[in-house]
Every structure is written in C-alpha cells, then in structure tokens.
Amino acid sequence: MAFPNPHRVITVSPREKVVVWSMEVPSGMVAFIDKLYVPYHPNLKITMRIDSTERIIERQIGEVNKPEEYDPPIVSEGIIEITAENVGTTTMTVEVVCDGYLIPID
C-alpha cells in the first residue's frame, strides 16, 4: 500500500515551528521510505523523526521532481514526521516529498 499524500506544501511564518509531513504507521504494518525530498535554507531548521530517532537536516535531499531514492529503504514501525522551524524574519514556503509503501507484519 502506497503512502497517502506523499507531497506536501506548507507556509511557515517567522519564528513558527510546524509539522510539514507526518504519518503514524498503522498497527500491524511496517513503513518503507524509498523516496525523499527535503529542502535546505539557512533560515529553516528541518527535523526528521523516524520512530524515536530525530535528525536535523543540514543539506537538501533530492529534488522536488526527482526525490532521492533509498535502496534499501528507510524503515519505520511507529511514526514518520518532518517539521520545519522558520528562524528567519520572513514567511517561507516549505515543500517536501516523503514517499514509500506499507506492508503488513506477518
């Protein structure tokens, strides 16, 4: 089963922190992220959380029309979340792609 709504665009006001993309992996399923686009801008603090591990994104990952492909994919059994904090003084638009698929746990 494919991820629902893998492409998201959101506006972030100055000094605001928002969840750009989030998915709770349904019980009895495992998520596999195989394509990812995350922007980079010095006035944005982008954080990606996979289950209990958080990582600050310090470079652009992929392109919006050509996300970086992961083989093997990134695996999650809990939650996938991408947040953006605008540390600048102007409103910014943040666009991400987090694509993959879910399979049942046997």
Topology:
Elements: E1 7-12, E2 17-24, E3 29-37, E4 44-50, E5 53-57, E6 68-76, E7 79-86, E8 92-104
Antiparallel strand pairs: 1-8, 2-7, 3-6, 3-8, 4-5, 4-7
Q: Helical segment tally?
A: 0
Q: Output the CATH class name.
A: Mainly Beta
The topology string of helices and strands comes to EEEEEEEE
Structural class: mainly beta
Number of strands: 8
Strand content: over 45%
Shape: elongated
Helicity range? under 10%
Unreliable stretches: none
| pLDDT averaged residue by residue | 97
Overall radius of gyration: 14 Å
Notes on the structure:
The protein is mostly beta strands and 106 residues long. It has a single domain, classed as Jelly Rolls (Sandwich), CATH 2.60.120. It has strands at residues 7-12, 17-24, 29-37, 44-50, 53-57, 68-76, 79-86, 92-104. A four-stranded antiparallel β-sheet has the order 1-8-3-6, with no helix packed on it. A four-stranded antiparallel β-sheet has the order 2-7-4-5, with no helix packed on it. Strand 4 (44-50) and strand 5 (53-57) form a beta hairpin. The radius of gyration is 14 Å and the shape is elongated.
What characteristics describe this protein?
0% helix; Jelly Rolls; four-stranded antiparallel beta sheet; mainly beta; 106 residues
